[in-house]
Each structure stands twice: as structure tokens, then as C-alpha cells.
């Protein structure tokens, strides 16, 4: 059996259910692959891992993948699992914020570490400075959790539809106390979880073959997870080495993640070219400090997924 | 035991032999064939200068004498000779496996550097040598780092080369200075002063009140073992995203080393000296000021020095858990994710420099305060 | 011999050290009264408990048997009244203070003004022949010089009771003679109570109003000899017949004390 | 010369004071919990639209799901649940995670202490090393380890080293420093006369080292070892963070923090603290044995 | 007087200490030859440089002027041959070793077998009267006892050259006499070269074949006196007329040496 290593972007959770399901249900075995899934974490940068040869495929978000590509690590998107973005900015209603016009002078929590680009683009679009100067917004580097909002240290924080938002709810906030700004709605959304590999890998037909098998089994896993959510959650929990994840939370997460898979007529994981173009445009329009300065070439390919659908 | 003659000539002889051998070996692979030094006359010339230097050093170096021109000439020749291997990669050679000549030359140059350091160490104590010796050592490390990164084509995202780091420092100077102000000038200084002061006062209390000694100290051990990575998020939760939470983390981190050292120091006074104080009927404060504090000073400085590095680490680590958008920890975590590893290392370099200067100042102060301690007297 | 006015009153005193192997009985059944203004010398074989007895008087060691009163008070109370000037067997100088500041130390503790303290310190440093070494540090002095600093320190703050443990042991004969003369002079002037340990019989004879001879293991008092010598003395007093006779008696006692511990 | 240890480790009559202080802390803690959680509870109670009193508020602050500061009994309950009520081999058992962390800590500590001792011996004996290496040892510690921890994990992961070793290396990197610094001081602590005595015997450097420098440095060694093992534990936990979802107290802290499970964070913190204390006491015990064998006063 | 066979040959030797304030000239223009088997005593005022001279001989201090040869070698080479047994002015015991193991220390270093080392250690501990204290630690001993441990340690490994810096300063007269007798006996048996510092003129007279009298600041040799006493001596030798005369001459010298430094 062929060995293959997958590096996740974050810790074991339902966000990655498809891969765990594929492994647990034997979908990888079926295509003759022995897949190792490496969980990520706050300081694991998947691109760095793959550049160092620590993985064959990584799950990453397109903004950071493209930024990395400009740094000389030739990442190529071989499948786009989440069709739409799950990112949003969630504000407390009692802070007095009603629309994006109220942002200036407010404190906004933002994830950094490659996840800040969509936010910066948005603010750029709105014409708000983020460097702390007058008339702009005050940006905090948001840490691991939603505490800043709960404790009113920030007026708004970044959340994912499938994760932090529900943590706020679990912490006792009511949906009607919260105001959300979905990036999709603000037209600054960028593509999130996708599968990336190195350009060099794709030059080798045998590797392409292998990747196609991997994508096939993974997508099968995702579809299974979407259709059997309770079972998928169980599998995720079993794979969680910290033993800290709760079933309630993972179930909600699974539900929300399933929505992001979308239903592309060309199949799960198909990269939509217009969405790609939109992401690239967003990334290049970063004002004085764009994420990427020139249009990437050959940053994606449909070869692998096409091959996988023919298997 | 080896004869003195052998001892005297072993290292110089080895150095010269290695450098000469290096000249005969290929330096890399170029257009499908081995390349040799003589195809790169300038590089070869520098190595030859190095060999001549090593020979001169072998003859002059060990001679005693204050200063001695070799103390100045040696580093100079070393600097020149080091250009030999540095120039080669510019010729777009494939060095990493084929370049046995280049690697051997580097080894020889490092040995040469060691001898120069040995010679400088024998010079009478002065600030010049006290700085020059570690400087040469550090330059050697950096040189080796550069050689390996360039020679083995280590990807920049894993480990940038020193030259790339220097470029990043220059490029990002204003940003890096802002970060420095935020992290060092605000959080570290405040935390360092506050933490050490609190720990010291606690040590005095604990030393004074036996009840505390028995009640608080076992718990002190407990608290000290709480990792900062657990504390940092809590402190951010309690004290906000600004520098105050970093200061709190630092206080927490450096408390234990100071407490333990201060307590050990306060108990370290020689029995007879304590008896003398007793015989004067000296009060607690008098004994403390005249006897126990001076005796405790070496221990207290030990803690201060350890804490100076801990404080910096603490502040940087705490910034990983929430910060405004400035600060060295913020910069590192953000730029790692952006794959700007050169900026990361630029920040690390500044942190290391600031920390070393901080430590150095403490060391100077220590020498002034505890000049009487045998560890200084003997030198 | 002193009666009620005794400044030190020791009764049935004993001290046994607990050590890891066997307990060491350092002092046993000591009885002694010392009057104000007396100069009492202790003499006895090495290890017989002289230092230990001094330490008990100065409240640096607690007796395990018997009682002791200093000025009618416990040694602790006397210590808190700052009655003691103690010259230890080893110099006990503070490495981080120069010579002058080692001598001014007790003054600082007792709150003497700075200039007054320095004046006194310089005076006594001169007395012990160390003028010119004020700015040196202890490790830059020879053994005998260090001991003299320690003597200057004890004398300089004019304590009520002077405890001196072999103060002149590390000095050459001439320096020692000079020190003896100075001590005699100071004692004649101030009539301080002095308790003095020495190994030199001549020195004991010259200085003391009373000589206590001890024996070793366990340390006991085997003889207490009142000096018949006149109060007014000089170095030449040693050469008188009375002095020779006294020295002889002390020597006998010492010999007897030695025979206790089977060597 | 040999420094006297403060007597705080003697078991004699320690229980009462400790209990008093603990009781004091617990009372303070409950108070603090009210202060810190008050705001959120009050909001929630307001949200219910019914009148509420102080007792409701207090009860609320001591029983929140995601408190800012959990009450002691909540932490104790969680601690009990994750240690006593699940099998020690289960991933939900804190004991299991503590074991994972402890093993990496010990490996890192042993190697770190050895490295520190070797470096200090080199520095004390080779003057060139003293002058050249010392500043760089210090500089090494000003490198923020968490910054290079992911790099270490990644780089080592690339060459196939995963699991315990990367963590141990991080903890070693942190803990060799106090040992090296303390031992340089300690190995230089014999006074001149004692060194001179060895010189008159023409003792070899090796003999001076073993018979004089090492015994004289033991008090310094043990006090730095105590600091080092605490730091070593911190190093391991830091090393567990970037590896994210793996096992260990660090991973536990991370996921607790990530999901806002304050109670879980606090019980993991307590486990870390107990682990650290156990290790410090183990060293103190060895110290006591060693110093007693050396006839300490 | 020794000619070419001199074991120690000091020529125009000088040493000046550099200190923070003024340099201290400890020794100046020392010339001395000591033959094998001699017993040479140094006597002189406190601080005159006796210890410093001994330290130079043992290669613990480097002279700043002149030359010195030990056995035709430099002091360093002689030290490398393990020629020295040095009794320091202070006991210099290792606090973490018990008494027995303090004495076996030099044996361990020179690689004597363990049982042999212990046998010798016990023998010399007995000689200095410390049998029964083998298992005690230094701080449990009195000052004189500690110094005796240090003496036993130096004697026990039979060094070629014995350097003793006021070894008996902290001992009482009787113990000191006994030590003197032992030293005489050992010297008579082995004819080791002994260099001896003492403050006791009687002791110097009793033990030495030659007495060197020094003066202070800067330390100089002002007199070198060959002893007219017979080789075969006992404590009673001190009472002979020759001895008295010798003592007188030493005392004169000492006095002269003292007058140098304006006290
Ligand atoms: N701390 C201690 N622990 C155990 N035994 C001790 C201690 N201090 C002293 N001793 C023992 O007590 C006895 C008396 O000691 P002390 O120091 O009083 O003698 P000394 O008369 O002053 O002798 P020296 O003239 O040699 O100074 C000795 O046998 C010594 O071993
Ligand atoms: N390390 C030093 N630094 C400066 N001066 C020193 C040092 N050691 C000794 N001296 C000085 O050298 C002189 C001679 O000292 P040394 O110890 O040789 O005297 P000594 O003859 O042994 O005296 P004693 O009989 O009191 O032991 C003294 O004046 C002393 O102050
Ligand atoms: C420190 C930190 N950084 C980023 C996120 C944002 N985030 C939420 S889910 C997820 C996984 C990627 O799909 C990411 C990165 C966070 N919560 N904490
Ligand atoms: Mg004594
Ligand atoms: Mg001397």
C-alpha cells in the first residue's frame, strides 16, 4: 500500500470529519492508500510542513496558500472542499453596532496567522484604517477563544459559522444578542479549506495517480460524513487524542460544515473558477498592503480531481 | 602525557594540513563535472591567505606579551580568509555534496578561529578582548549557519540564512522598533521590576515568619509549576490585551526563581559571621542589611540573570495568546503563519540582542556589587 | 573573690552536643563566678570546651544543663543590651567590607555617628598597627593582620564585657607583647570585665586576675587560681618570682588536665 | 561555606500552616469568582426578566458553565471526574495526559541537566570557552522558545522524529540554562585556600573537579535543578501546544482554552502544578539525602 | 651551610601585589639557599611576608622579581612531581568530608590504595591525638583540633618537602610540646626538608637547624642564624644555655625587624 501524509490546518474536529471518516471507514484502504492524518494546531503552518517535506497534502485556506506561493513554496490547489466561506464577524448588539458604518473607533478581534487577509481586505474596502490611527478601527489579535466578546474586551470578534459562533451560544449568549457579518455577504469572502500539494509532486504521474485516489476516497468520506453526521461525529471524537471535545459542540459543527460542502454540479471538491478568481481579486485589492502582488499562475489544477472522478 | 612540543604544534599543524588538503579537493559540481579551487582563483587566493595566516599564527600566536600584533592581525586574516568559501556559491555551483573542498576549508578556518580565540583569551583582561572573543565565536557560528543554509540549499521557510535575516531587519526596522517598544520597554521592564520586587519581599516575609515558611512555601512550589501557557490566556482574560497582561505573566514566571534564590541566599551567611552579629545584639534589620543581604547578593544576581531571559520569553509567549497588533510575540506568530520566516528570525535576533544586553548589564552590576566573591577574586 | 556582685554566675553548667554518631559531652558541671572588673583567663588542652563556654556566655550556644546569669540577667537579655565584645578564634571579617568598615560595623549597628565611628576605628586600627590598611579588603591581609582587625573591632565600641578567644594566637612575639601591653593599659583604664582564652601560660599569668584551668573530655574546671600579682603590671612583671611560681602552678594544672584524656 | 538549606522542606509541623493558607486561598478564590463572574451572571439573570437577589447572583457565579473564574468546587469536581472516574489509560483521563507530559519532561530534564553540567564544566576548565561560549549560552535563552517550537516540531517531523523527542528537546533547551549558570557559579565556589591545597598535591584537573569542585557545587546544583525541572515541565507543555491535538497536559490546556472550557483549563493547570511539585519534591528529597551524606550542618 | 646540593635556591626574589589602591610590596630582595634535610624556621612580625614566601616556594604565587629553584627545578615542576606537603595557616578542611576522609584526600589523589590510605590516616590522626574523631565533620571540631587534622593530612603522605605555616599556633602548650616532640622524631627519622613558620621563638629554637628572621614592609631577611644545637634534641634542649643564647639572638633580630616599620 502507498503511504501518504495529510496535514490538517487545525486540531481534530468535525471541520475535518471527511478525512477521519474516510480513514475509519476504510475508504483509503479501498483505494490502496495508507494515509497518516496529522492534526494541526495554532502554530502549525501547513505550508511550512509541506515545504519541509513533512506531508504530501495539506488542508489550507487559499489566502495563506497563495501568500505562501508568492514566498516561493509552489502550492497548488488540487481540490476545494469547502465551496463557501464560513467566516464572519460577530458583534454584541449591546455595543451599539448596527451596521458596518459603526465600526470606526470600535475594537475588533481578528485572527492572525494567515487568517487576517479577508478582514483586512474588507476594512480596506470600507476605507477604515487598521493600524490604530484615528478614524480607523482598533484591531486586537484574537486568541484561541471567544472570551474577548463574552467579557466585552472587544465589540466584535471573528467567528466561524461552524465553531466559535456556537461557542458563544453555548456560553449563554442568545442569538438575538448577537449581530453577525458574514464575509460571504460582504463580498469579501475567500476560499477556505482546500487540498494543496507541491508543484513538483504533480510532475510525477505516479504521484498524480496517488493523489487522485486520495481525493476520491476523501470526497467519499466527506459525502458519507454529510449523510451520516452522528456517526461522523463519533469517529471524530474517537480520533481526538486530547479527549477534550464535546459531542454537543461537534454535532453542531458537523451540521454547519456540511452546509459549506455545497453542491457543486461537478462534484464535491471541485474548485469553482469564478470563486477562485474572486478570491484572487480580493487578495490583490489589499490597498497599500495586498496579500499577493501578482496573479498566481498554475496555482490550481483540475487534473487530479478529474482523474479521481474517473477512477 | 603528551610532550609539550606535540601539544604546542598539534592544533596549528592540523589546521594547516586541513586547509592545504582542502585546496586539492573539488569544491562542487558544475555543468556535470567537478569544479576545483583553481577555477576560482580569487577564492583560492583567500584560502591561501588563510593558510599563510595559520602558519604565522602558529609561530607568533602562542608567544605571550600584552596585546601583541597577532591579536589584531589574526582576526583580520581570518576575516579575509573566510571570503574564500563565501565567494564560491556565487558561481552557481552545486556544492552541497560534492564540495568536500569547501567543507574542509570551513573546518580548517573554524580551527584557525579557535586558536585565535585561545590567543586572545591569554591577553590581559580588557574590555576589547572581553568583547572580541565572544564576537569571533558568534561570527563563526553565524558563518557556519550561512554556509550550511547556502551550501545545502535549505528552504528559506525552514531556516533563513543570516544575510537574509539582516536584510529583513533593515527592511522592517520601524516595525521591529515598534514591537520592541511594546514588548520590551513596556511589558518586560515593568514585569521584571515588579516580579523580582514582589518575590524578594515575599522571601523576606517567608524568612521572617516561620508560619509562612511552612504554609506558603509548599504552595509556592505548586504555583511555580503552573506553566505560563496556561497562565497567559487567563491573564489576557483578566488584564486585557495590552501590555499589562504580559507584565502579569512575567511576574508570575519570574517569581519562583527569585524566591528560591533569595531564600537560599538569606540563609547562606556563615555561622560565625551570624554569631558576631548576635554578639552585638544586632536587630533583625541590622543583621539583614549588614550581613545577610551582602551574602545573599550572589544568589539574588543569579536569579536576576535567569529572570532577565525568562521575562523576555514570558512576554513574547504571552503575546501569542492575544495582543494588540504590535509586539515581538505578535510579530513572530503572525509572520510564521505568513511564511515570512526571515522577519520571524529578525525579531528573534532583536530579542536575543536586547536580552543579551540586558543580561550583560546585570552581569556588570553583579561584578560591581559582589566583587568580593571568590569567583571574581580568583581571576 | 566575688560574692553577690558577680557579673557572671555559672552553676552546674553542662553541654552535650548531639552528633550523627555519638553525643559529645563538651562541658560538664561547670561552676564559676566572675566579678565585675575581673580579668579571667581560661587555659586548657585543645578541644576542652573553652570556646564552647565562651559561646554559652555570649548566648551563642544553649547549655543542656545548669544555669548561667550575666549581670543577673539571662545571657540573651545581656546580649540584647549589647554587653558583649567578642573576638572569635578565627577573624570573622566581612569580605565585602574594607578594613575600616569592618571595624566601624558594630558602631553602625549601635548607631554611633559616622565620623565618631571612623575616628574610633582609626584609633584602634592604629593601636593594632594597621594604619595604612584601612582601604584594603580582608583577603588582602595576612592571617595575623586579620586577627588584629578583629581585635580592633571588639575594642573599639567599648563593650561592657570583653570575650576574647585566643586573640593573639596568630601574632609574633613582639606584636603580641605590644598587644598585651595595650590590653593591660586599656583594662587598667576602664576596668572592663575581660574573659580571655589563651594557650600561652605566660600571657595568662601576665594579664589575669584569675586563671581557670580546664581539662578535656568532658570539659571540667580543675583549678581556679587567683593571681597574687599586683594590679599595676608591665611586661616585666612576667619575670618576677611570683609570676614564675604562678606559671608553674598553671603548668601543673594543665598537665593534670591533659592526663585525663589518656594520651 | 556549604549553604544551609532553608528548613521549609522539613515535614515537621507543616500541615497546620499549609491548611490555614489553603483555606485562606479558597475563601479568597470564592470571593474572586463572584467578582469576576458577576457581570455575566447579572446579565443572564436580567435576561430572564424576573427579579433576582444577591443569593441568586452568588449561586450563579459559582455554577457557571463557562465562568471567567470557576469556583474551587467546580474545578475539584472536574479534577475528580477526569482522574478518578475514568480509567487512567483513557484519553479523557488527566492522569493519562500527565503521564505523557511527565515522560517527555523527565527525558528533557535529564538531558538538559547533563548538557548544563557538561557546559559548565567546560566553561570552568577551558578559559577560551568561558570567554567565548558564555555570552552565547545566554543569548540562546533570549530566543523565545515558543517561536521556534513549531519549527523544531516541523523540522524534526520532516526527518521522521515525532512524539516525545521534539517535546523533550524543547524542554531540554529551556532547562539546561539554569543548570549551566548555577553550576558555573557552584564549580567556582570553592575558596582559594581549598584550591591551593589541591594545587600543592598537583591534583589533576579531573581530581580537582571530582573531589573539590563537584562537592562544593552541590548546593548550587540542587537549587538550580529545582528551578530547571519546573522550567522543563513548562518547556514540555509549550512543546505540546503546536503539535495541537496530540496528548499531554499542553494539548489539554489548548483544547480547553480553544473551546472556552475554563473548568477544564483549571483542572489541567492544577494537574500541571501537582506534577511540577511532585518533581521538585523528588529533587528536594535527593538533595536532602545527598547533603546528609555530606555531613551538612 | 649548603652549597650546590641546595634543595631550595632563592635569588633576589621580590613580590609586589597589585591592589585597587596602592601596590603592596610584600617581599623584596630575598636571597636564601636551603639544603636537603634542613629544618628552616621563618620568624618575623605579622604581615612581613612569611606566608607569601612559602606560597612562592609551593608555586601558589608568582614572584615579580628574581628567581627560585626547587631541587634544580622551577617550583611548578617540583609541584608537578608532588614534592610538597603544605600545612596552611588556616585548616582548609573540606566541609563535606569527615575527618578521616579529609586526611585520606591526598592519598586518593596520589592513587594510594584505600586500605593503605586509611591505615596511614588513622596512624597520623592518632599521632595528633584525634583518635575517635574520624567520623566527625570539620565544623564539629574545635579550632585546635581542626588545625591538627590539617597537620595529620600533610604528614601522612610523606612529601619530600614539608611547608608548615604556623601549624601549632592554635594549640595549647602541652599539646604543642607533644606535637613538637613528634615533629622532631619524624624529622630525625626521615630527614625531610622542613620549612616552618612560627611566632614562638622557643619553638623555632627547639626545632630548627637554621632560623631566618624577617622584617616587615617590605619583607626582607634581616638575619639567618645557624643553630649551634646538637642534631639530637628533646624538649629539654630548650633549657640549655646554647638554646637560651640562640633565643636571645632571634629576639634581638625580631626586635630590629620590628623597628623598621615605625611603630
Ligand atoms: N557543633 C559541634 N558539634 C559537635 N561537637 C562539637 C561542636 N562544637 C564543638 N564540639 C566539640 O566540643 C568540644 C569542645 O570544643 P571547643 O571548640 O569548645 O574547644 P576549645 O577548648 O575551644 O579548643 P581549642 O583550644 O582547640 O579551640 C570538642 O571536642 C569538639 O569536638
Ligand atoms: N592577595 C593579596 N593582595 C594584596 N596584598 C596581599 C595579598 N596577600 C598578602 N598581601 C600583603 O602581603 C603582606 C605579607 O602577607 P603575608 O600573608 O605573607 O604575611 P605573614 O608574614 O604570613 O603574616 P602573618 O604572620 O600575620 O601570617 C601583607 O602586608 C599583606 O597585606
Ligand atoms: C489562534 C487562532 N488562530 C486562528 C483561529 C481561527 N480558526 C478557527 S477554525 C480554524 C481552522 C482552520 O480551518 C481556524 C484557523 C483560531 N480559532 N485561533
Ligand atoms: Mg576554641
Ligand atoms: Mg601568614
List the helices and strands and how they pair.
The complex is a heteropentamer, with one copy of chain A (311 residues), one copy of chain B (379 residues), two copies of chain C (263 residues) and one copy of chain D (297 residues).
Chain A: E1 2-7, H1 17-24, H2 27-30, E2 33-38, H3 46-51, E3 57-60, H4 62-70, E4 75-80, E5 87-92, E6 107-110, H5 117-126, E7 138-141, H6 147-150, E8 156-160, H7 164-170, E9 178-182, E10 194-198, H8 199-202, H9 205-227, H10 229-239, H11 247-260, H12 273-284, H13 303-310
Helix pairs in contact in A: 1-9, 1-10, 9-10, 9-13, 10-11
Chain B: H1 4-24, E1 26-30, E2 33-36, H2 41-60, H3 68-87, H4 100-121, H5 127-151, H6 162-171, H7 173-208, H8 210-215, H9 217-224, H10 228-239, H11 243-266, H12 271-279, H13 284-319, E3 323-324, H14 328-337, H15 341-369, H16 374-377
Antiparallel strand pairs in B: 1-2
Helix pairs in contact in B: 1-2, 1-4, 2-3, 2-4, 3-4, 4-5, 6-15, 7-11, 7-13, 7-14, 9-11, 10-11, 10-13, 11-13, 12-13, 13-15, 14-15
Chain C: E1 6-17, E2 24-35, E3 39-43, H1 50-57, E4 65-70, H2 75-80, E5 84-87, H3 99-110, H4 114-127, H5 143-156, E6 161-165, H6 173-190, E7 193-197, H7 201-207, E8 210-215, E9 220-226, H8 241-260
Parallel strand pairs in C: 3-7, 3-8, 5-6, 6-7
Antiparallel strand pairs in C: 1-2, 1-4, 8-9
Bound molecules: adenosine-5'-triphosphate (2 copies), ligand VIB and magnesium ion (2 copies).
Organism (chain D): Dongia soli
Main location (chain D): membrane
Family (chain D): Belongs to the binding-protein-dependent transport system permease family.
Structure report:
The complex is a heteropentamer, with 1 copy of chain A (311 residues), 1 copy of chain B (379 residues), 2 copies of chain C (263 residues) and 1 copy of chain D (297 residues). Chain A has helices at residues 17-24, 27-30, 46-51, 62-70, 117-126, 147-150, 164-170, 199-202, 205-227, 229-239, 247-260, 273-284, 303-310; strands at 2-7, 33-38, 57-60, 75-80, 87-92, 107-110, 138-141, 156-160, 178-182, 194-198. By secondary structure, chain A is an alpha/beta fold. Chain A is globular and about 60 Å long. The model of chain A has no long low-confidence stretch (mean pLDDT 88). By secondary structure, chain B is an all-alpha fold. Chain B has helices spanning 4-24, 41-60, 68-87, 100-121, 127-151, 162-171, 173-208, 210-215, 217-224, 228-239, 243-266, 271-279, 284-319, 328-337, 341-369, 374-377; strands spanning 26-30, 33-36, 323-324. In chain B, β1 (26-30) and β2 form a beta hairpin. Chain C folds into 2 domains: 1-83 and 163-175 and 193-263, P-loop containing nucleotide triphosphate hydrolases (Rossmann fold), CATH 3.40.50; 91-158, no CATH class. Chain C is built from 8 helices and 9 strands. In chain C, the strands form 2 sheets. Chain C has a 6-stranded mixed sheet with strand order 5-6-7-3-8-9, with helices on both faces. The model of chain C has no long low-confidence stretch (mean pLDDT 84). Chain D is 76% helix and 0% strand. The chains are: A alpha/beta (311), B mainly alpha (379), C alpha/beta (263), D mainly alpha (297). Chains in contact: A-B, A-D, B-C, B-D, C-E, D-E. β7 (138-141) of chain A pairs antiparallel with β3 of chain B. Bound molecules: adenosine-5'-triphosphate (2 copies), ligand VIB and magnesium ion (2 copies).
Amino acid at each position: 500500500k502507498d503511504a501518504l501524509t495529510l496535514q490538517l490546518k487545525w486540531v481534530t474536529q468535525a471541520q475535518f470529519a471527511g478525512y477521519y471518516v474516510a480513514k475509519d471507514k476504510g475508504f483509503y484502504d479501498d483505494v490502496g492508500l495508507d494515509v497518516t492524518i496529522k492534526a494541526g494546531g495554532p502554530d502549525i503552518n501547513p505550508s511550512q510542513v509541506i515545504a519541509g517535506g513533512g506531508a504530501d497534502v495539506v488542508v489550507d485556506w487559499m489566502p495563506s496558500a497563495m501568500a505562501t506561493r508568492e514566498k516561493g513554496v509552489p502550492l497548488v490547489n488540487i481540490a476545494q472542499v469547502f465551496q463557501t466561506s464560513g467566516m464572519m464577524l460577530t458583534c454584541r448588539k449591546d455595543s451599539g453596532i448596527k451596521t458596518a458604518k459603526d465600526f470606526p473607533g470600535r475594537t475588533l478581534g481578528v485572527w492572525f496567522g494567515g487568517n487576517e487577509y479577508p478582514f483586512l481586505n474588507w476594512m480596506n474596502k470600507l476605507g477604515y484604517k487598521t493600524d490604530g490611527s484615528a478614524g480607523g478601527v482598533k484591531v486586537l489579535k484574537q486568541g484561541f477563544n471567544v472570551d474577548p466578546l463574552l467579557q466585552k474586551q472587544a465589540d466584535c470578534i471573528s467567528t466561524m459559522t461552524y465553531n466559535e459562533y456556537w461557542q458563544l451560544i453555548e456560553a449563554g449568549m442568545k442569538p438575538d444578542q448577537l449581530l453577525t457579518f458574514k464575509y460571504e455577504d460582504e463580498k469579501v469572502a475567500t476560499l477556505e479549506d482546500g487540498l494543496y500539494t507541491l508543484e513538483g509532486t504533480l510532475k510525477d504521474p505516479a504521484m498524480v495517480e496517488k493523489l487522485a485516489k486520495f481525493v476520491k476516497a476523501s470526497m467519499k468520506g466527506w459525502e458519507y460524513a454529510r449523510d451520516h453526521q452522528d456517526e461522523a461525529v463519533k469517529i471524530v471524537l474517537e480520533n481526538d487524542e486530547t479527549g477534550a471535545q464535546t459531542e454537543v459542540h461537534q454535532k453542531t459543527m458537523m451540521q454547519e460544515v456540511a452546509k459549506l460542502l455545497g453542491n457543486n454540479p461537478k462534484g464535491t471538491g471541485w474548485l469553482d473558477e469564478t470563486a477562485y478568481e474572486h478570491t484572487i481579486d480580493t487578495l490583490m485589492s489589499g490597498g497599500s498592503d495586498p496579500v499577493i502582488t501578482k496573479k498566481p499562475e498554475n496555482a490550481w489544477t483540475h487534473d487530479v480531481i478529474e482523474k479521481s472522478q474517473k477512477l | 602525557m603528551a610532550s609539550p612540543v606535540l601539544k604546542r604544534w598539534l592544533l596549528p599543524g592540523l589546521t594547516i594540513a586541513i586547509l592545504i588538503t582542502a585546496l586539492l579537493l573539488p569544491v562542487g559540481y558544475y555543468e556535470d563535472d567537478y569544479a576545483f579551487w583553481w577555477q576560482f582563483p580569487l577564492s583560492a587566493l583567500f584560502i591561501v591567505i588563510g593558510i599563510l595566516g595559520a602558519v604565522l599564527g602558529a609561530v607568533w600566536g602562542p608567544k605571550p606579551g600584552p596585546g601583541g600584533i597577532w591579536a589584531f592581525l589574526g582576526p583580520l586574516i581570518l576575516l579575509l580568509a573566510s571570503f574564500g568559501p563565501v565567494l564560491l556559491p556565487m558561481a552557481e555551483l552545486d556544492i552541497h555534496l560534492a564540495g568536500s573542498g569547501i567543507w574542509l576549508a570551513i573546518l580548517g578556518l573554524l580551527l584557525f578561529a579557535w586558536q585565535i580565540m585561545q590567543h586572545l583569551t591569554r591577553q590581559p583582561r580588557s574590555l576589547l578582548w572581553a568583547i572580541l572573543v565572544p564576537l569571533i565565536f558568534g561570527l563563526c557560528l553565524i558563518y557556519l549557519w550561512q554556509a550550511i543554509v547556502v551550501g545545502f540549499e535549505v528552504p528559506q521557510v525552514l531556516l533563513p540564512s543570516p544575510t537574509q535575516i539582516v536584510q529583513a531587519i533593515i527592511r522592517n526596522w520601524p516595525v521591529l522598533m515598534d514591537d520592541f517598544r511594546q514588548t520590551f520597554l513596556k511589558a518586560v521592564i515593568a514585569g521584571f521590576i515588579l516580579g523580582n520586587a514582589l518575590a524578594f519581599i515575599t522571601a523576606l516575609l517567608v524568612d521572617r515568619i516561620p508560619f509562612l515558611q511552612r504554609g506558603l512555601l509548599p504552595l509556592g512550589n505548586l504555583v511555580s509549576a503552573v506553566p505560563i501557557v496556561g497562565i497567559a490566556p487567563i491573564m489576557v482574560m483578566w488584564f486585557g490585551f495590552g501590555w499589562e497582561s504580559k507584565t502579569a505573566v512575567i511576574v508570575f514566571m519570574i517569581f519562583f526563581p527569585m524566591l528560591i534564590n533569595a531564600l537560599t541566599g538569606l540563609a547562606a551567611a556563615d555561622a560565625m559571621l551570624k554569631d558576631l552579629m548576635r554578639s552585638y545584639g544586632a536587630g533583625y534589620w541590622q543583621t539583614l542589611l549588614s550581613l545577610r543581604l551582602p551574602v545573599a547578593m550572589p544568589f539574588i544576581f543569579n536569579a536576576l540573570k535567569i529572570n532577565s531571559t525568562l521575562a523576555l520569553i514570558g512576554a513574547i509567549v504571552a503575546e501569542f495568546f492575544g495582543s494588540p497588533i504590535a509586539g515581538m510575540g505578535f510579530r513572530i506568530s503572525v509572520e510564521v503563519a505568513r511564511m515570512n520566516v526571515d522577519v520571524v528570525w529578525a525579531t528573534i535576533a532583536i530579542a536575543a540582542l536586547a536580552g543579551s544586553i540586558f543580561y550583560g548589564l546585570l552581569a556588570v552590576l553583579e561584578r560591581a556589587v559582589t566583587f568580593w566573591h571568590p569567583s571574581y577574586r580568583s581571576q | 573573690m566575688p560574692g553577690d556582685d558577680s557579673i557572671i554566675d555559672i552553676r552546674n553548667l553542662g553541654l552535650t552536643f548531639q552528633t550523627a554518631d555519638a553525643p559529645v559531652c563538651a562541658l560538664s558541671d561547670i561552676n564559676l563566678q566572675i566579678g565585675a572588673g575581673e580579668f579571667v583567663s581560661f587555659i586548657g588542652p585543645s578541644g576542652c570546651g573553652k570556646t564552647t563556654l565562651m559561646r554559652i556566655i555570649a548566648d551563642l550556644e544553649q547549655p543542656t544543663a545548669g544555669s548561667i546569669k550575666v549581670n543577673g540577667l539571662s545571657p540573651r537579655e545581656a546580649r540584647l543590651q549589647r554587653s558583649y565584645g567578642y573576638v572569635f578564634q578565627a577573624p570573622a571579617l566581612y569580605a565585602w567590607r574594607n578594613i575600616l568598615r569592618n571595624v566601624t560595623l558594630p558602631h553602625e549597628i549601635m548607631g554611633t555617628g559616622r565620623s565618631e565611628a571612623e575616628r574610633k576605628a582609626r584609633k584602634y586600627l592604629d593601636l593594632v598597627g594597621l594604619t595604612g590598611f584601612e582601604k584594603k579588603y580582608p583577603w588582602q591581609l595576612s592571617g595575623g593582620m586579620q586577627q588584629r582587625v578583629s581585635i580592633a573591632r571588639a575594642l573599639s565600641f567599648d563593650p561592657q564585657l570583653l570575650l576574647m578567644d585566643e586573640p593573639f594566637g596568630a601574632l609574633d612575639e613582639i606584636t603580641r607583647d605590644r598587644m598585651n601591653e595595650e590590653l593591660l593599659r586599656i583594662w587598667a583604664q576602664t576596668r572592663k570585665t575581660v574573659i580571655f582564652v589563651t594557650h600561652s601560660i605566660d600571657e595568662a599569668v601576665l594579664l589575669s586576675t584569675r586563671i581557670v584551668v580546664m581539662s578535656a573530655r568532658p570539659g571540667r574546671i580543675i583549678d581556679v587560681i587567683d593571681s597574687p600579682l599586683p594590679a599595676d603590671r608591665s611586661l616585666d612583671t612576667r619575670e618576677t618570682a611570683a609570676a614564675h611560681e604562678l606559671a608553674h602552678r598553671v603548668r601543673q594544672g594543665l598537665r593534670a588536665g591533659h592526663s585525663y584524656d589518656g594520651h | 561555606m556549604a549553604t544551609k538549606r532553608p528548613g521549609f522542606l522539613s515535614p515537621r509541623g507543616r500541615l497546620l500552616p499549609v491548611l490555614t493558607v489553603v483555606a485562606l486561598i479558597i475563601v479568597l478564590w470564592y470571593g474572586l469568582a463572584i467578582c469576576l463572574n458577576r457581570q455575566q451572571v447579572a446579565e443572564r439573570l436580567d435576561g430572564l426578566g424576573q427579579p433576582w437577589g444577591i443569593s441568586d447572583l452568588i449561586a450563579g457565579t459559582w455554577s457557571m458553565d463557562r465562568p471567567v473564574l470557576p469556583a474551587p468546587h467546580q474545578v475539584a469536581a472536574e479534577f475528580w471526574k477526569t482522574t478518578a472516574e475514568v480509567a487512567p489509560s483513557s484519553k479523557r483521563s488527566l492522569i493519562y495526559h500527565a503521564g505523557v507530559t511527565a515522560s517527555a519532561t523527565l527525558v528533557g530534564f535529564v538531558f538538559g541537566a547533563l548538557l548544563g553540567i557538561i557546559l559548565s564544566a567546560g566553561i570552568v576548565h577551558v578559559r577560551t570557552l568561558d570567554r567565548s561560549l558564555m555570552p552565547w549560552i545566554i543569548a540562546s535563552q533570549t530566543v523565545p522558545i515558543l517561536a521556534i517550537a513549531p519549527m523544531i516540531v516541523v523540522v524534526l517531523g520532516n526527518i521522521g522524529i515525532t512524539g516525545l523527542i521534539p517535546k523533550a528537546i524543547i524542554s531540554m533547551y529551556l532547562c539546561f540554562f539554569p543548570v549551566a549558570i548555577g553550576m558555573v557559579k557552584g564549580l567556582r565556589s570553592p575558596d582559594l585556600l581549598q584550591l591551593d591545597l589541591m594545587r600543592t598535591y598537583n591534583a589533576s584537573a579531573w581530581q580537582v573537579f571530582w573531589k573539590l569542585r563537584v562537592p562544593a557545587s552541590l548546593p548550587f546544583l540542587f537549587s538550580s535543578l529545582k528551578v530547571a525541572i519546573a522550567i522543563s515541565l513548562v518547556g514540555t507543555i509549550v512543546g505540546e501546544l503546536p503539535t495541537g491535538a496530540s496528548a499531554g497536559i499542553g494539548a489539554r490546556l489548548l483544547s480547553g482554552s480553544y473551546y472556552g472550557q475554563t473548568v477544564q483549563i483549571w483542572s489541567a493547570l492544577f494537574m500541571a502544578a501537582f506534577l511540577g511539585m511532585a518533581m521538585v519534591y523528588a529533587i528536594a528529597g535527593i538533595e536532602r539525602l545527598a547533603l546528609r551524606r555530606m555531613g551538612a550542618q
